[in-house]
Amino acid sequence: MVNTNDLSLVVGVILAVLAVPSLLNAWTEDRAPRFGAIIGLTGVVLIGVAMMRHPSGYSLNDVGPAFGRVFRAFLF
Fold it and tell me: What range does the domain containing 56 cover?
């Protein structure tokens, strides 16, 4: 079973990264970045929730192992 804090962190990072191309596309086409902003904000909120719920917080060195734990839980 996967830790919900790790899952929130991983989903948040993935959403935040996927929001960047949408934000850039909206900016270059001179239109409002609604979808990218919603996805990015959701990702940032999930990252914040994971960091607040984790007893000692997450550092950059903890992100890689969190991805490994989440992917391993879904694969096996």
Answer: 4-75
- As for how many domains the chain has, the answer is 1
Query: Would you say 33 and 27 are in contact if contact means Cβ atoms under 8 Å apart?
Result: yes
Rounded Cα distance, 28 and 33, in Å = 10
User: Rounded to the nearest 5 degrees, what angle is found at the Cα of 44, between the Cα atoms of 33 and 29?
Assistant: 15
Number of CB atoms found within 10 A of residue 68's CB: 12
How far apart CA 75 and CA 64 sit, in angstroms, is 16
Q: What is the pTM of this model?
A: 0.88
pLDDT one-digit tens code per residue, 10-67: 999 999 999 999 999 999 999 999 999 999 999 999 999 999 998 888 889 999 999 9
Q: In whole angstroms, what separates CA 8 from the centre of its chain? A: 7
